Amino acid sequence: MRVIGLDVGTKTIGVAVSDELGWTAQGIETIKIDADQNDYGLDRIKTFINEYNPEKIVVGFPKNMNGTVGPRGEACLEFAELLKKKFHIEVVLWDERLSTMAAERILLSGDVSRKKRKKVIDKMAAVMILQGYLDSKQ
Questions:
Q1: Which of 18, 50, 59, 80 has its CA 20 to 30 A from that of 129?
Q2: Which helix (H) or strand (E) holds 11?
Q3: In this predicted model, which residue has the larger pLDDT, 53 or 112?
Q4: YqgF/RNase H-like domain location, by residue (predicted)?
């Protein structure tokens, strides 16, 4: 039962995948996107779907701290619908409040340089999102 996790940003999408038992999340890649050009990395996401054959995709859903949905949350809702229509796979929205900050703390505690953190932060946030979802199912 594999699951793919996505941290959808304005310029990149962090990607993580679970192990076959659905216990742990591992980061795979950070996909560069260009929303202005309608390039949402769907070809790359399709590659991961074909490779891992997931039963569902978990998309980070960035709510405001008071629980309301802002512009980024709306964009993620639209992206989740796009994934459902394009790939005919279950898509779950997962509250990702503070996931990027948690990923940043982990990378800082590992003494990862600012330059390297910038390259992997979205992938690490995708791991945090997916692991939170997987842990809720245990």
A1: 50
A2: none
A3: 53
A4: 1-103
Element (H, E) at 36: none
pTM for this one?
0.85
The total of other beta-carbon atoms located within 10 Å of residue 45's CB is 19
CA dihedral sign, ordered 67, 74, 44, 21: positive
Domain range 3-137, CATH class? alpha beta
58 contacts 133 by C-beta, under 8 angstroms: yes
> Residue 124 to residues 9, 22, 36, 78, 86: CA-CA distances in angstroms?
13, 17, 25, 23, 25
Residue 107 and residue 32: Cα distance in Å, rounded?
Answer: 21
